[in-house]
């Protein structure tokens, strides 16, 4: 019993130091303001009223939500059939294909964004390929520095995140359920829609949520491949901490992002029983 | 018809894997390209960019800083992650699910929130940004990774061994060290390797916590902002190879254990 309490205290201290205190600091700063590059330590809702009144902030937030929804939807549409494909393979090949989707998660986040910039760029890989094969006469500059370049790059980053929960949900479906479905006369597609698909829903919701959250908060992808038309909400936060030196406004913007994401997690847990994925 | 479906599936999988690996392949390819612009066809191959790495002291200092951050961060995360996993897996705690959720948060939340909130905490406490603050940032998101892997392992590990040990008079601490820890060793190791590679590559959180000493990804981030250099490709090719090796080790460890477990259960 003594050991349990000691561990509990240590873990609670961890949570306090790394989660509760930073978020409290963020909340505190968000009610402060800045004057002449000096932080004014007095309570005011000035930052929040500015964010909710100035159309710049809300329209960027809305645009970011839309973009993240597109990335998450495409990510699920690609990951789901991929998960089915990998799950149908056997033995070592299955292991390799499975790890093959995950591996890019760990081989350089920055390099993948950077590389997409050179792939999509005017003198880049795709353009020179298109010119080389004669499809284009001149390299096109329309591939890079826009929202679709951001979506493509974010997809490349989010697919592994979406794949993991979908795959583990599909893999856990007992084979005898499918046998039972077949015994009762269900064909392949009927068995899929009535057995596999409903049972994989928690994975789909979790995957969708992960893709949405990673894209929503990403500021490095937009600043490398987005150009001026591709900037997102995260870039605005980044600017407040960098060039603008307006930490209180940055804190308020982060706070709104945090609250929004917590709402998304709560919704996902309600809809898709996401907890089941975390626990088993 | 069935054959056509199979070919379609194969083609689809091929396109997705290409999509995932194209940036990595392009990076490796152009790290050997003599020209300073990334245009096809490649006219001449060269090792110059790799040779240049040896004389680039800034890069070496940054790589060293990355190790200074990653090693202690991973070590700390192993201790806390394993502790948390053991606590949540072996004991019923009031509010345990909520605590677990809070520990998981830095893994789920975008790095920008971890970065800004810690940045503001350090500002509030008047702590100057340094490699130390980056280490603290990294601990937050490696710990859940270790916790995940160790919890998964603990779930599949026969608890009766622990009971037997305690029946024979071993203290809980002794039981943990002699029975539990050896059994979850591979999960801890896998967590450590994954944590190390994630931390070594991390730039999103570090961005808000870094002082004057750059880590490797931070240096590369500033290099990218200034423009293109094929040397970045060379550095990243080496990092990719390094990460892939660690992942292969971590992966095979985990899978070996999974499979041997599956065999004994049969």
Features:
heterodimer; A: 280 residues; mainly alpha; MetI-like fold; two-stranded antiparallel ribbon; globular; B: 266 residues; 0% strand
Account of the 3D structure:
- The complex is a heterodimer of chains A (280) and B (266).
- Chain A contains 13 helices and 2 strands.
- Chain A is mainly α.
- Chain A has a single domain, classed as Orthogonal Bundle (MetI-like fold).
- A two-stranded antiparallel ribbon of chain A has the order 1-2.
- In chain A, strand 1 and strand 2 form a beta hairpin.
- Chain B has 266 residues and is mainly α.
- Chain B has a domain at 51-230: MetI-like fold (Orthogonal Bundle), CATH 1.10.3720.10.
- Chain B has helices spanning 2-30, 48-55, 57-90, 96-108, 111-124, 131-156, 160-167, 172-201, 206-209, 216-226, 230-265.
- The longest helix of chain B is centred in the last third of the chain and has 36 residues, at 230-265.
- Chain B starts with a helix and ends with a helix.
- At the A-B interface, helix 1, helix 3, helix 4, helix 5 and helix 6 of A face helix 1, helix 3, helix 4, helix 5 and helix 6 of B.
Please indicate the count of domains of chain A.
1
| The CATH H-level homologous superfamily of the domain at 51-230 in chain B | MetI-like
Strand order across the largest sheet of chain A = 1-2
Task: Give the structural class of chain B.
Answer: mainly alpha
Helix fraction of chain A by DSSP (H/I, runs of at least 4): over 70%
- Low-confidence stretches of chain B are none
Judging by the overall fold, what is the CATH architecture of the domain at 51-230 in chain B?
Orthogonal Bundle
- The overall average pLDDT of chain B, rounded, is 86
CATH class of chain A: Mainly Alpha
Radius of gyration of chain B: 23 Å
């Amino acid at each position: 019993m003594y050991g349990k309490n000691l561990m509990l205290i240590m873990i609670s201290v961890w949570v306090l130091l790394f989660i509760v205190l930073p978020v409290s600091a963020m909340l505190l700063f968000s009610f402060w303001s800045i004057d002449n590059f000096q932080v004014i330590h007095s309570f005011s809702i000035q930052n929040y009223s500015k964010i909710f009144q100035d159309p710049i902030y809300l329209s960027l937030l809305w645009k970011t939500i839309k973009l993240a929804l597109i990335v998450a939807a495409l990510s699920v549409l690609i990951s789901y059939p991929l998960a089915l494909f990998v799950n149908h393979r056997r033995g070592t090949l299955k292991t390799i294909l499975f790890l093959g989707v995950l591996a890019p998660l760990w081989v350089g986040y920055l390099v993948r964004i950077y590389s997409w910039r050179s792939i999509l760029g005017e003198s880049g890989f795709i353009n020179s390929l298109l010119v080389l094969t004669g499809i284009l006469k001149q390299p096109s500059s329309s591939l890079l520095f826009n929202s679709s370049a951001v979506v493509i790059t974010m997809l490349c980053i989010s697919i592994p995140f979406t794949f993991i929960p979908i795959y583990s949900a599909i893999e856990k479906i007992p084979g005898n359920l499918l046998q039972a479905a077949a015994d009762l006369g269900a064909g392949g597609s009927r068995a899929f829609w009535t057995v596999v698909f409903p049972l994989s829903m928690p994975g789909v919701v979790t995957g969708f949520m992960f893709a949405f959250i990673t894209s929503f908060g990403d500021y490095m992808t937009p600043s490398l491949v987005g150009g001026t038309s591709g900037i997102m909400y995260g870039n605005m936060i980044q600017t407040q901490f960098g060039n603008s030196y307006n930490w209180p406004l940055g804190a308020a913007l982060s706070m709104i992002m945090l609250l929004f994401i917590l709402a998304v997690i709560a919704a996902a847990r309600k809809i898709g029983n996401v907890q089941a994925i975390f626990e088993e | 018809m069935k054959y056509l479906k199979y070919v379609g599936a194969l083609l689809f999988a091929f396109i997705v894997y290409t999509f995932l690996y194209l940036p990595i392949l392009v990076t490796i390819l152009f790290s050997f390209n003599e020209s300073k612009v990334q245009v096809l066809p490649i006219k001449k191959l060269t090792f110059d960019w790799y040779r240049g790495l040896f004389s680039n002291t800034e890069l070496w200092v940054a790589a060293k800083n990355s190790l200074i951050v990653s090693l202690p961060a991973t070590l700390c995360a192993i201790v806390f992650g394993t502790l948390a996993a053991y606590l949540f897996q072996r004991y019923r705690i009031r509010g345990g699910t909520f605590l677990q959720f809070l520990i998981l948060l830095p893994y789920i939340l975008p790095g920008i929130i971890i970065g800004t909130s810690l940045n503001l905490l350090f500002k509030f406490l008047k702590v100057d940004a340094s490699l130390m603050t980056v280490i603290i940032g990294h601990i937050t998101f490696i710990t859940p990774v270790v916790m995940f892997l160790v919890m998964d392992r603990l779930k599949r590990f026969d608890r009766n061994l622990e009971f037997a040990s305690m029946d024979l008079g071993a203290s809980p601490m002794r039981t943990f060290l002699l029975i539990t820890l050896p059994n979850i060793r591979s999960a801890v190791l896998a967590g450590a390797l994954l944590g190390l590679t994630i931390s070594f590559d991390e730039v999103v959180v570090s961005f808000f916590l870094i002082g004057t000493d750059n880590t490797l990804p931070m240096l590369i981030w500033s290099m990218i902002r200034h423009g293109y250099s094929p040397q970045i490709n060379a550095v990243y090719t080496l990092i990719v190879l390094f990460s892939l090796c660690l992942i292969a080790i971590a992966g095979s460890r985990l899978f070996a254990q999974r499979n041997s477990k599956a065999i004994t259960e049969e």
